[in-house]
Amino acid sequence: MNSAVNFMAQPARQLTGDIRVPGDKSISHRSIMLGALADGTTRVHGFLHGDDCLATLNAFRAMGVNIDGPVNGEVIIHGVGIDGLKAPHHDLDMGNSGTSMRLMTGLMAGQSFDTTMVGDSSLMSRPMRRVTDPVTIMGADVSTIAGTAPVRITGGARLRGIDYKLPVASAQVKSCVLLAGLYAEGQTIVTELVPTRDHTERMLRCFGYEVHNPQPGVCSLMGGGRLSAAEVDVPADISSAAFFMVGSSIAENADINLRHVGINPTRTGIIDILRLMGADIRINNQCIVGDEPVADIRVRSAPLTGIRIPEELVPLAIDEFPAIFIAASCAEGETVLTGAEELRVKESDRIRVMADGLKVLGVDAVPTRSGIVIQGGNGFTEGTVDSCGDHRIAMSFVMASLRAAGDIIINDCANVDTSFPNFVSLAGQTGLAVDVDSQSRQHLSMGSYPGG
Ligand code: S3P
After folding, report:
1. Ligand 1 lined by 171 (C-beta under 6 Å)
2. pLDDT of residue 437
3. Is the pTM higher than 0.85?
4. pLDDT in tens, 232-244
5. Is residue 364 among the annotated active site residues?
6. Over pLDDT 70: what percentage of the chain?
7. Residues 59 and 100: beta-carbon distance below 8 Å
8. Contact criterion met (CB below 8 Å) for 389 and 412
């Protein structure tokens, strides 16, 4: 049923509006995890009501945590305390969500009961050794099938703190180790060579847990502490705003204001990369909400030029590359991405799937081992592309309709619900013309197209 959700995007030339995209996915996940383990009642505002965050929420409900909502982005979590979770009666189904499975590997490693985590076919094929290796060094009893889920954790292990150098630039791995560190004896230290998103560190502090940064790139905490309930205001997700930032940059006639977007410096690679290409992006009304910087982002049409993307920006824009490839296809000249092999193990192999789709749409896109080379400037032809169930690829190809000669049909789009459930209606409000396959619209609210 899910795979029957297809989008048809008709050519559009204009993108305008003043919109707020849904809540940040990374922060929403963490608010449930820390709220559940805190003493007291945590209130979350702006929670992302998407399938990935609901997978996390349902996992904690299955472990005995009372959670009210989400209703209009409000969630109330009745924390059970650091040792208050109960054994679930079934496997925890993380759906499409790598963040749920990887962060919770750290948390589950510290519990007294056994857990098994499963997911959909994409998640079941993603690499899990990156999290099971460090928690095993910490003393956890964890198994996988050749490095992939199901992840089975035998409870009751005594964890010891470690001093861990991240072998991959991954906030999920860093967070997994820090969360296991809450349950470990002594100090847990994580060192990263390049900065990755630091929402876990920031939110732990908001919940009253001390996290130190003895030097840049190093963070540490002592096990055995407790978390106190907090108020969490989730900003709009810059990764969802990114589609409209790219759309507004490539459309002939565009002016979009994106309200209350999280601009944590570990997430703003998309702004830097688009600006290097010549985009017109203004940051207004900057403020700090909770412990996260937030701003309104205004983007207007601008002529883009191809660039060599600086490798140090890759982890800071890791989820935005499908959208960046659409911008690169419209930019005059060559864009070269290197140092981004991680894209091959996201919800899909984003280098291969994007290159295949771009070629269908008449773009000269050559995948390389760790990136892609795109010759841009001619826009897109009409055609049918496959998102391979990858939410960010589906939404990126919708933005291509702003420079397309004909209709773009995008197959396998149900997973847009994982991160951006109202994408189609917001896209419609701003000037895009997206129809959804009529057979399977239970989650999506737009019209249908004949024969869909
Ligand atoms: C996330 C970290 C990133 C990102 C993912 C969310 C997080 O993954 O791709 O969508 O919330 O920590 P990696 O840390 O593995 O790059």
Report:
1. yes
2. 87
3. yes
4. 999 999 999 999 9
5. no
6. 96
7. yes
8. yes
